[in-house]
DNA sequence: ATGCATGAGAC
DNA sequence: TCTCATGCATA
């Protein structure tokens, strides 16, 4: 009873909107599709872009989120406040400063017509089940089978205790560590914690996934997210320890077996991923047309490519507190 | 632990 | 359309 991934992945959320409107960074410093417009571009340019970026990547590996961990290698972006603009130029045009010209060329490539073929969703046929983020309490969704309740009545959980303390990255890091240790001591898995949160019945707090708990512990969530989750997890921890102490009732988990619907995860092959990374190095925020173009080139669904870019950007913004704090 | 995905809400 | 918070699926 200590392994996860085997059962009841609840999917309710907690809507702790901690920093729901951090809407930041949005001005690109890159200009696409400027100037050029005849789309007679050849693949050679793309190939070169990839090659260049690839070389660049391998050289200054720290700049990119190469693999698993390289992600947070660089400094965090918006630690200080809830809305400092990250969007730092990630690309590492080292020796060669061809990015701009390449961009022009690249953008010209599809300059005109986009087949917008894959307008349907992604390659995943599995219908998108209801993934509800936050719904009003009385809301009842259409999925009778794997129904999962425990909504969050509130859309915004203003972390009442917003003392400078809570925002302190070092404090968060310390807490995350403490949390993990004590959680393990309690013999509770990350998934269990996520499920148990709903049992706390705190206003606006539903369950969370193993992923999120894991990310909290490893500090791989955004700063705001960490801050929003902290008080909740802290509440759970105290509650759990108290319960364990009293040894009166340690079971209050509602395990809800999940039914059929399985989502198939798209797997982008290494070569394609490599290309995407190359493109990303050149332009982390390609336009819709750009995306369509790239998708076509790599023979991927446009949506897959779009999402990939979104996720890459998100990764870059992710915070690794230990980097800024732990010293 | 992490890759790809969804969806609400902000632009 | 993008960002953000989160999740399912999987390595």
TrEMBL record:
Record-annotated DNA-binding residue ranges: 261-320
Keywords, sorted A to Z: DNA-binding, Homeobox, Nucleus, Sensory transduction, Transcription, Transcription regulation
Ranges for domain Homeobox: 259-319
Key word Transmembrane helix present: no
Region of interest (Disordered), ranges: 248-267
One of the record's GO cellular component terms: nucleus
Pfam assignment, any one: Homeodomain
Start and end residues of each POU-specific domain: 164-241
Source organism superkingdom: Eukaryota
Main location class: nucleus
GO biological process, one term: neuron development
InterPro entries with a match to the protein in the record: HD, Homeobox_CS, Homeodomain-like_sf, Lambda_DNA-bd_dom_sf, POU, POU_dom, POU_domain_TF
Annotated SMART domains: HOX, POU
Gene Ontology terms for molecular function: DNA-binding transcription factor activity, RNA polymerase II-specific; RNA polymerase II cis-regulatory region sequence-specific DNA binding
Compartment(s): Nucleus
Similarity comment: Belongs to the POU transcription factor family. Class-4 subfamily.
Protein known as: POU domain protein
Native organism: Potamilus streckersoni
Upper lineage: Eukaryota, Metazoa, Spiralia, Lophotrochozoa, Mollusca
């Amino acid at each position: 009873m200590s392994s996860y991934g085997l059962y009841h992945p609840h999917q309710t959320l907690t809507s702790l909107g901690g920093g729901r409107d951090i809407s930041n960074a949005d001005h690109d410093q890159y200009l696409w599709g400027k100037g050029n417009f005849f789309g007679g571009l050849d693949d050679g340019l793309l190939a070169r872009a990839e090659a260049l970026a690839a070389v660049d990547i391998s050289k200054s590996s720290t700049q990119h989120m190469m693999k698993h961990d390289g992600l947070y290698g660089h400094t965090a972006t918006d630690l200080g406040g809830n809305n400092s603009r990250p969007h730092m130029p990630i690309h590492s045009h080292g020796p060669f400063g061809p990015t701009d010209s390449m961009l022009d060329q690249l953008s010209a490539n599809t300059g005109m017509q986009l087949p917008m073929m894959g307008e349907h969703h992604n390659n995943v046929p599995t219908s998108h089940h209801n993934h509800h983020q936050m719904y009003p309490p009385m809301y009842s969704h259409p999925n009778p089978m794997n129904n999962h309740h425990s909504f969050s009545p509130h859309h915004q959980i203003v972390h009442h205790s917003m003392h400078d303390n809570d925002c302190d990255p070092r404090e968060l890091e310390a807490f995350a560590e403490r949390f993990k240790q004590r959680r393990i001591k309690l013999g509770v898995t990350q998934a269990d914690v996520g499920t148990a949160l709903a049992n706390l019945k705190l206003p606006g707090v539903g369950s969370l996934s193993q992923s999120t708990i894991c990310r909290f512990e490893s500090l791989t969530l955004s700063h705001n997210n960490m801050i929003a989750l902290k008080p909740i997890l802290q509440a759970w921890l105290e509650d759990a320890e108290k319960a364990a102490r009293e040894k009166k009732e340690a079971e209050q988990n509602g395990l809800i077996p999940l039914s059929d619907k399985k989502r198939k995860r798209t797997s982008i092959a290494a070569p394609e991923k490599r290309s995407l990374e190359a493109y990303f190095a050149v332009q982390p925020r390609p336009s819709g047309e750009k995306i369509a173009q790239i998708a076509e080139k790599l023979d991927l669904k446009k949506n897959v490519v779009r999402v990939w870019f979104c996720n890459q950007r998100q990764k870059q913004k992710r915070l690794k507190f230990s980097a800024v704090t732990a010293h």
